[in-house]
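Deliverable D4.2, example record:
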Amino acid sequence: MSAKIKIIADSKIPFLKGVLDNASNIEYAAPSEITKEKVKDADALIVRTRTKCNEDLLAGSNVKFIATATIGFDHIDTKYCDSKNIKWVNAPGCNSSSVRQYIASALLTLAAMKNLDLSRMTIGIIGVGNVGSKVASLSEILGLKVLLNDPPRERTEGKEKFVSLDKLISESDIITFHVPLNKAGIDKTFHMADESFFSRLKGEKILFNSSRGEVIETNAIKNALKKRTISAALLDVWENEPEIDRELLHLVDIATPHIAGYSADGKANGTSVCVKEISSFFGLGIDSDWYPENVPSPESGKYLEFNCAGKSLQEILKEIICATYEILKDDSNLRTSVETFEKQRNTYPVRREFSFYSVKLLNSNSEIDLKVSRLGFNLIK
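Output generated by the structure prediction step:
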């Protein structure tokens, strides 16, 4: 290319700085700084969910390509981009294993808090894409009965693997959302969990949401919690982030600042997709298998050892999983300083997924070994 393309990139995207600098004219900016004036002469944007890529931002600009380092893309006005021949890409599945780890820690932590036997419970998974599928396999490993609801997949694949939303609501002890945010259409998910949804819950249910905050109507879930229609709730996502509802925060059992997918591995995957896609589109010459070097390790290191003697399978799995990610630390940080919601996301500590760890189990047996291996840990014999 005779002239280098101009890229505006979110400065909080990890592992990106220095990668495209020689091949392009790249400028790093905080999401609040990515304005109409800033992008007007840019050829490409690399963003996260905090940047709304719509007509207000893009009209009259030179932008031809948008990459988001996230699974979700509801912050991109895809119809507008398509109408203006602006190519956009997301990173499907990039942090699905991170969310799986988050849900694993959440399930086992809540079970310990509430004295629950997960092997006697049913989990209903609403949305069975990259993330929901991994949550389903995790749930089976943990001994839960699994019900799946995914109307788009059911229309394509048939009814065999899926249940209706009514059946899921009726028969599940735990309901977890893993849907994209669709504001209209046959598969609308905006305020899916509204007053009508909660009115159908019979008996005390446990509710998780790590998809999008707008999937649950804030006043409706607050009323359900106050009425004990919901016996426990875990929220990672909130309406009006980062200005979240303080009353709702105090009502839920576990609260985190939209970090379910924030493992270092998930972030590296998302950045990798963006770099490779933008290089391919503009012919920048970056290797097609590029991946960040030196993804950092947690302070605990990669080698873990556990003694299984005298513990139930659920207790052992909790100990192992929470050694890789202790969800209550994030809960405590948010409750202590809710006004720093965004800072907590931007300065999130290193978290590595199960596959990073090598685990030695003392006084184990074949059932425990199999479960731990199926979770993705590397067993040391």
